[in-house]
Amino acid sequence: MSIVKRRPSISSLRFQSFLTSKDLTKKKPERALVKGLKRSGGRNAYGRITVRHRGGGAQKKYRLIDFMRSERDVLGTIKSIEYDPNRNVRIGLVFYANGAKSYMLMPDTLKVGSKVLSSKNAEAKVGNCLPLRNVPSGFVVHNIEIRPGSGGKLARSAGTSTQILAKADEFATLKMPSGEIRMVSLDCWATVGMLGNSDYKNISWGKAGRIRHLGFRPSVRGMAMNPVDHPHGGGEGRSKSGSHPSTPWGKGCKGTKTRKRKNALILKRRKP
User: What is the pTM of this model?
Assistant: First the structure.
């Protein structure tokens, strides 16, 4: 998988780059593992916008990913590698020996035909899922549970992984992709290896339309607004209004620490 640039036959292609799809082996998803996806447009149950700049976008169907790797002690074989419009990492269709099928996040280096296993006694190799207490220190893992039995929550995007720094007192110390160092119970399950599609972050979108297709609506700078609409608004020319960077509701941002609740499991915060 690599990034390619298309010949600029029209002006909109001049600055665009794309990921090749040579690694994909199946175009249509498994019918039993797909369901409809209802979009909220960033609104909550009361119809109020709680996440700005969301809406529109291409229609998608949701692929049911098995973040828990629930088929335990059953050998599985990767039958196909597919594209998932809901995430930036490839997904793999796994056929298990007992007849079950499921999707999993595709780690780097795994291919069609590779064997994967989810078990306490599984070997600590790429694609296998096992408790953190059975993974040697220094290994990199992804799709990590934050609480035992909750399913994978940490390190799930393209090219990410978490390193196991140490294990002691029923906790494993992990270095997160953000630089944060935190502890997680040794009974939490994780998948060995680093996720693939690491070139995703190097894509040049090239035009606003491609971002709209992903469901992101345009955002307006606060300095371009009026004083009634934003703390940065108003002024003659490019005025900073004499205030620190803040949100439209007056809360500090761009480096201001807003996390009040302390968590004893976080040993070192990520850099702001």
Answer: 0.90
